[in-house]
Amino acid sequence: MQIPNFHDGHFDGIWTGPNKRVELFLRTSDGQSFVLSLEGVQALAFSDVKQGNIILDLVFRSTKEITHSDIAELYGVGADTPQGASLMKAATDRGLQVLEMNPSYGAQGLALFQTWDLSQGEPQP
């Protein structure tokens, strides 16, 4: 499934489950609901979650596009430290990807993960 345009859409929440699975609940600006499932999540950093979060954009980055500042933010380590370099090497060796969520208002975040899937519809309880 191609990623819809989530600009001016909403981030409705996050669920962290077993087996390194994370689900993000999203809506497009016209109200269509989606669940973005991330598998093999190695690190997750979301902040500023508020009521009525508005998405500026979602950016998926391949293994080759992971930056030292991504690793620093995800793990709380210095970007140019030996620990940061080791974590960067591990991420690239494992072929991980990054999801970056940028806000117009509210929540922003990064996730380091293996694979993703997007499904349309309301989340299941």
Q: Quick gist of this model?
A:
This protein is an alpha+beta fold and 125 residues long.
Strand tally:
8
Question: How far is the N terminus from the C terminus?
Answer: 23 Å
- Roughly how many Å is the radius of gyration? 14 Å
Largest sheet: 4 strands, antiparallel
% residues in beta strands:
35-45%
- Please identify the structural class as seen in this structure: alpha+beta
What key phrases describe this protein's structure?
125 residues, alpha+beta, 4-stranded antiparallel sheet, 8 strands, 43% strand, globular
Describe this structure in words.
This protein is α+β, with helices and mostly antiparallel strands and 125 residues long. The protein has a domain at 10-66 and 95-117. Helix content is 16%, strand content 43%. It has helices spanning 68-75, 82-93; strands spanning 10-16, 22-27, 33-39, 43-47, 54-61, 97-105, 108-113, 115-120. The strands form 2 sheets. Strands 1-2-3-8 form a 4-stranded antiparallel beta sheet, with no helix packed on it. Strands 4-7-6-5 form a 4-stranded antiparallel beta sheet, covered by helices on one side. α1 (68-75) crosses α2. It is globular, with a radius of gyration of 14 Å. 22% of the residues are buried.
